[in-house]
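Quick start: read one record
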Amino acid sequence: MDFAPKGRLWLLHGRGYKSHVSLARIQDHLEVACAFRKHAEISQPPEVIVAGYPTIELSAECVSYARKRNVPVALDIRDAWPDIFLEAVPNVIRPIAKMALRPYDRYAGRVLSGASALVSLTEPFLNWSLNKAQRRRHSFDAVIPMTYQIEYNHLGATTTNTTLIEGDVDPCQHFIVCLFCTFGRQYDIGTIISAARLLEDRGVLDVRFVLCGLGEGLGQWRKLAQGVRSVIFPGWLNKTKINEVMLASSVGLAPYFPERNFIGNIPNKPIEYMSAGLPIVSCLDGLLADIIRREEIGFNYKAGDPGSLVNAISDARADRGRLAHMGARAKGLFAQQFRPEIVMEQYHQFILRLAATRSRTTRKSQS
């Protein structure tokens, strides 16, 4: 748990969480919430509390503490807990799982309804939390998007470094499709490998899928991609190398599985690509797909369909002028909505508005 009790603002989130339930994980969440309670009791109350949701347990303690001391508390909604657990359950037993989660669901509703304000990355996520809290939106609820810290030393430059990464990748000769991730259950890498094999079978040999990162699934995907020359796994890259790869790439992949946490969200990878002026190739329905179409910043393909991804890559390769136009629009959208200075100022003003409610209440009680 990150908890700095000194000062006017308490900003809290847990030690980390995963989208599965186990007795050990629930115990860990309870321990974090208990640690907050002990620290908070011996600390001077702040003017405002912002707590990450999930976890529900820590959020509940923050809401309880704040209400007893007339401190405004905001919950920052990052995941649709506990609803996301149902997505990991086979359809045939989902009704049973829903019944089993009902107490947790009611608990979530009580916690969310007890917050002074709800803030989230997108409108769908905020609406989900308001529905769970069974209340209407008010003036202190807010949507504040994710951001990405730009650290390019040569932003806008075109690299000619033929040793960009290990493997047969030449930015001057290849159409580079990049991805940076931790290889886990949320990314559909199998469809990418199948699409790469299809392109090679059709004689398209200038495309390179540069899939960067580590993770528990990496070995499985390396094995599946054996014999597919166009799929490169460079492993973990530092920030400088990531920037170089993005600036040398033609498009960036967002191969998320269609889960609730992604469909109603704009994940971090697309925003990272926008910051580099990189068009997005995504299989995610919902909010991101709508933005890609409306803002003309990339291509959508059908999740789990290698042929659809091949078509998207082919469309991107066919018109480099259109691709450059998309990249410029992506970079412009980042500058307008997702730059760190813009997002941080929005969050700053959000916190100041909340803090002002306590000041007004305090003055009234003293008069």
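Confidence is low (pLDDT under 50) at residues 1-6, 15-19, 154-162, 361-367.
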